[in-house]
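Below is how a single chain appears once it has passed through the pipeline. First comes the sequence as given, then the structure the pipeline wrote out for it. We keep one example in the README because the format questions we get most often are answered faster by looking than by reading.
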Amino acid sequence: MPIDMTPLCPTPDDFLPPARRPVLRFERRARPGAKRVTFADQRGLALTRVKVFSQLDDPVLIPAAVREALRSAAAVAAAAADRPRLDFAPPSSDYLRFRRNLETNLVSLERCELRGGALAGTVRVKNVAFEKRVALRVSFDAWRSHADVDCVYVRDAFPGAAGDAFAFSVPLPAAPPPQRRAEFAVRYAVAGAEHWDSNHGNNYGIAWAPAWSRRPDSAHSGSSAWSRGALPDWPGFAGYEDVGPYY
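Resulting structure:
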């Protein structure tokens, strides 16, 4: 049998080093505590769940004291939401303006306040003649109608006071009027003529507004402490009963 005596020649691949496998292997694993987001449908569950609540068979029992407290709180809140307030500063808060108004118009609103569900105050007029009539003309429906309320003469305890003093009291409606506002002016009839104090043509106003929007009472009543000290003939309120004197 013949034998192949051809010499074997190495190829370039024979000189390459054998392939080496890495000793360390790195595998990606989830970190401990890592969160994954999955949806219910991926687990074969429904995406929505409907729960129907039926009426309780046994009603919830609220103690009588709690019910009474809730009713009282609601009543107080409703009353506070509809309290009237004056939307003007009484002339007595500015003595010089009051005297100027009195000398020009022969009549001027002097003091005014809301007390006991009524509008009460005084008017000062120049003593033109003995026979005279002083009244408040009031409207609760934007002057579609009005009423005249006569003022009552009161004896002035301060000699030398400017003019005669008249007192008035006008009951206010239990419920706010539709416009939530009332207006009035002062009418003075004497010696065959009429004189008016209408707050320089703007009328005096009463507004029904929530308690939180009300101005402090001191802004309406006007402080007379300075007036009594600097101007001794400036009268002040001493109390009010029915339509009696304020002095």
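The first helix runs from residue 64 to 80.

See the next section for the split statistics.
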